Amino acid sequence: MGLQFTPMTTPEPSLYNALGGESSLRALVDRFYDIMDTAPEAAHIRTFHAKNLKQSREKLYLFLSGWVGGPPLYAERYGHPRLRQRHFFFSIGPQERDEWLWCMNKALDESPIAPDLVQSLKVRFSTFADFMRNQEE
Ligand code: HEM
Fold first, then answer.
1. CA of 87 to the centre of ligand 1 (A)
2. Fewer beta carbons within 10 Å, N or C terminal of the chain?
3. Top CATH class, 13-131
4. Mutation test of ligand 1: which of 6, 36, 76, 83 has the most ligand atoms closer than 8 Å to its C-beta?
């Protein structure tokens, strides 16, 4: 408990609806991985991922659904996400964190999501991505 769970705190359920529910989240995740798949800025973390990003897309969507207060789909299928543990296998320092965030921020900026929601999501993703870091600054 404690620190491990802090960034996972689920906000009010209305955030899921405010974002536009499943279709909107899937669109965000698809754009995120399309960016990671093609941008030179993310080439390094792209090499960590499987060649085919289909499973990554599905899992990030399932996770984010619960993370923004919608149906906890990831937990229903796979149990407690334990995302920090699942990321131990990858060496994540400031560069990797920033590449991941760069993709997500770009996907958010391009999305039709309202600017105030984009801003609060950026703050939450930034905290979460840093929490995933397992290498020193
Ligand atoms: C900070 C830099 C991050 C890096 C470098 C990174 C990298 C990865 C990699 C390489 C995988 C394996 C996927 C595959 O093989 O295709 C993965 C899985 C995953 N990541 Fe990340 N990740 C980062 C941050 C995050 C954050 C902030 C979130 C959530 C907001 C997240 C959510 C997930 C989920 C849900 C999975 C699937 C886990 C599973 O196997 O069940 N990641 N990540």
1. 6
2. N
3. mainly alpha
4. 83
